[in-house]
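pasting for ref
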Amino acid sequence: LTFLQRCKPSNPRIIRWQLYLQNFDFDVLYCKGSENIVADVLSRIVPDNMNSPPNNHVFHVLEIDILDVAKKFEFLKNISTLQRQDSYLLNIIESIKNNNSEETQHFVVINGILYTNENNLIPRKRVCIPSQCQDELICLTHIYYNHIGIEKTYKLLQEQFFFKKMRSRTKALIKSCHICQTCKHPNIRHLTPIQTITARKPNDLLSMDFYGPLPAGQFNNRYILVLVDNVSKFVKLYPMKRATTGGVISALKNHFLKLSKPRTILSDNATQFTSKKFQEFVASQGVRSVLIPIRHPECNLQNELIATWATISDVF
């Protein structure tokens, strides 16, 4: 940040960064490394996540073992007792018993459990969740469905449950999920997206890229060569010990022999794909090699596939 404030704009990218930073009013203060014990605020996990987060407060979802999530949903079996421990829901239940139809026209008690049909867009009756269980329910739903986003979590909860400020509470909790912030790729685009190279029939275009390095497996493989047909979306994976040009050529020979030979291969500008040896190989096979623009991985179809795969593998 200090460099961007003082440097002379030397290329369009730095100019865009400087223009973007002008939207913020900030001062850069130096802090000694010995005094900066916790540099990342995300590591300060709040031990109590059962209450509503106050305004302008950093709130964090505690990590919960995925194997125990299904068991922890069992608190809904005692929902009738929990509802009567909540003062707001208890007043509604007492009003229903006293036949006060004006205050309780959108609520009904069935088998001792309080339901609501307040939302006309959702015809089914929804269970009213007491305040002491709301944050736990949001966290468990978010983790149980593999750390889905804010809107998907909110829609899942809205179908069966009801409590006030559901969207804002869901947004506050999921935005502070440490796993989502460290594993998921940002989906905010500041530049005009570049269109991918299209193909009209199978074997017209084959996208290719490496995924790794990964922890060594049974045969000491640390990389995966991903091949995707842009039309049929057929995916072929080739594990490799090292990401080398020779390994790519061997995998492509096997692919051409057992499956098919594409007209064009699309890849990034990695040295394995730009080397003279690789270019001579594809030319000898009668295949055209196309490289995507530098720093624009969205031109390659499998970039989205690898990003999704990386997110799932990092979460687990």
